[in-house]
Amino acid sequence: MTIRLYDTATRDVRDFEPLEAGRAGIYVCGLTVQSEPHVGHVRSGVNFDVLARWLTHRGYDVTLIRNVTDIDDKILAKAAEQGRPWYNLAAAMHRQLDAAYTALNVAPPTYEPAATGHVPEMLELIEELIGKGHAYAAEDGSGDVYFDVRSWPAYGELTRQGIDDMEAAGDADPRGKRDPRDFALWKGAKPTEPITATWPSPWGRGRPGWHIECSAMAGKYLGPAFDIHGGGVDLRFPHHENEQAQSRAAGRPFASFWLHNAWITTAGEKMSKSLGNSLTIPAVLERYRGIELRYYLLSAHYRSHVEFSFEALDEAAVGFRRIETFLAKAPAATDDARLGELPEAFAAAMDDDLGTPAALAVLFDTVREGNRAEDPRPHAARVRAMLDVLGLDPADPVWATGGGREVERLTGAVDALVGALLEQRQQARAAKDFATADAVRDQLQSAGIEVEDTPDGPKWSLG
Ligand SMILES: Nc1ncnc2c1ncn2[C@@H]1O[C@H](COP(=O)(O)OP(=O)(O)OP(=O)(O)O)[C@@H](O)[C@H]1O
Ligand SMILES: [Zn+2]
């Protein structure tokens, strides 16, 4: 019954032993809100949502933090290109990301801190690092502050690299640095950048470096030591190496486990906006339901790369519909969903580093047995229990709208129907047939629709 997880730092599967019995603190690097989310972007959201659900199922009180990076070079550059304020772009993309998570039934984290809301915590940490001799203000007058990698002998421990073999940090003018690998904790304001993207600091106006954001926010919400740090595998270096170095250099033990999910690829390459091989979530939701996409993402182990294709997604959707067909045939079991026991083999697969492919194989075995059984209901109850813990129970009201485009389509359909009824009401009124007009209004009201008469005509809303 022990959960075992692959720790990227120790490179082995280890028993999950929380710092505090019965509790699990998890920090997952969220996205930089700069463009519409694509399938690769949401993978970590889905994977870590399942981790949180499984730990919760195993009795842990889970605190999950997933941040939002809402200030960054890329956001500034894109907003400038589009001729809009950077915070307008960040807010719009954040809303799109939220919609994508909702469509995929990714539960909101316990807290979702935004970088721009935590600049004082970042400044405090930077000053602490300077005080301890691990960071310095650049002498070139740029207002930059760097982490001094040579002052921290353990630098490179997460990714097992020696300093001399490492790439230079590409985040600022190397002239102000003591070593090209020193990375920016604080970036002095540049005259070309909007003043709204800068905050006052002891080194002049500027903005935080990306790495310090996560260290400061993890520290604020989870304390100096916490259980699990997660993110996409590409974040291991430099982002996570730097997060760990600066946190530990400040005397914070930081994460006990590092978990990294692999990529979604297209033709073997990481799906990426800049490579032009990405597919946005709304584009996928035009053709598939959110539950089918979630199922597809979970049918691979989180540490395996997933080669995205519509053929594979099609196949997954057909597989998922087989489960739904089985459940539809055993409807009496619906109310038993939470009562079904999880098969031991399913739980064992999940305990073993969140083995969702093996867990889904158990689920399909149960469906097959249920299809052959005289009374399929106990099987259906077990299938529902398994789906539920994966956030895939089709009976869960979160899926009622199908998510994404489905909501728009439903709203459009309701609007047309309400419009027709309101037209009838207007005609009845014009004919002074107030009994009919009132009856229409009552009918709408009993369907939960409020009608308000405005100078522009009647308007409806869900009451
Ligand atoms: N194809 C992918 N598969 C899994 N995770 C991904 C993928 N692409 C991006 N991510 C995750 O999303 C986050 C943002 O990554 P990144 O900025 O590289 O994405 P992008 O928007 O596609 O990049 P680009 O600037 O190349 O357009 C990271 O946490 C990364 O791990
Ligand atoms: Zn991070």
List the helices and strands and how they pair.
Blueprint lengths: L3 E4 L4 E4 L7 E6 L10 H19 L3 E6 L6 H10 L3 H18 L15 H13 L3 E3 L7 E3 L36 E5 L17 E3 L1 H13 L2 E8 L3 H14 L4 E8 L2 E3 L2 E2 L10 H5 L4 H9 L7 E2 L2 H20 L14 H8 L4 H17 L4 H13 L15 H26 L3 H13 L2 E6 L2 E6 L1
Parallel strand pairs: 3-4, 3-9, 9-10, 11-13
Antiparallel strand pairs: 1-2, 5-6, 6-7, 7-8, 11-12, 14-15
Helix pairs in contact: 2-3, 4-5, 5-6, 8-9, 10-11, 11-12, 13-14
Mean pLDDT: 93
In CATH, what is the homologous superfamily of the largest domain? HUPs
Bound molecules: adenosine-5'-triphosphate, zinc ion
Output the CATH topology of the largest domain.
Rossmann fold
Q: What does the main sheet amount to? A: 4 strands, parallel
- Poorly predicted ranges: none
Helix content: 40-55%
Cα Rg? 26 Å
Morphology call: globular
- Order of helical and strand elements: EEEHEHHHEEEEHEHEEEHHEHHHHHHEE
Number of domains: 3
